[in-house]
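User: quick one, sequence for these tokens?
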């Protein structure tokens, strides 16, 4: 994996996020949320700074980042797309919806389009089972989505 060169100003902002939580290892998840908000993702270099600031191991930070699906070690697109694969969504055709997003965007799950506009991921449950299948793009929720709806949904972000 290529190394990321972090600007000194961003490193200082990251240290301020750590200080906001008194540099306590017990506040790791809150610090990671703040760091991801700051950078958009959590590359290894950010994880190393956090580990140093909170006096915890890099392995511990990495373990938390990889355990929780909210955290990402790869940059996300400006419009992150998530397809719910919970039981209700799955049985109502979420897999076909996902396949259509993959086909149109020409990306796999976990990837970002070449122009950085979209990234594609799956979720276990959005909690809107009555609207199954559900797709989220950023903060926006789309319910009862069919494969035929995908092109129209994407056109809203043209």
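Assistant:
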């Amino acid at each position: 994996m290529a190394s990321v060169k972090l600007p000194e100003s961003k490193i200082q902002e990251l240290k301020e996020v750590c200080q906001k939580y008194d540099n306590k290892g017990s506040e790791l998840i809150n610090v990671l949320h703040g760091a991801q908000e700051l950078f958009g993702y959590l590359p290894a270099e950010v994880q190393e700074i956090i580990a140093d600031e909170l006096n915890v191991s890099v392995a511990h930070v990495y373990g938390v980042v990889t355990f929780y699906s909210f955290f990402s070690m790869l940059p996300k697109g400006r419009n992150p797309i998530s397809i719910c694969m919970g039981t209700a969504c799955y049985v109502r055709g979420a897999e076909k919806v996902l396949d259509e997003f993959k086909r149109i965007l020409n990306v796999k799950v976990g990837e970002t389009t070449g122009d950085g506009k979209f990234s594609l991921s799956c979720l276990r449950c959005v909690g809107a089972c009555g609207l199954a299948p559900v797709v989220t793009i950023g903060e926006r929720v789309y319910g009862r989505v069919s494969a035929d709806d995908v092109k129209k949904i994407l056109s809203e972000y043209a």
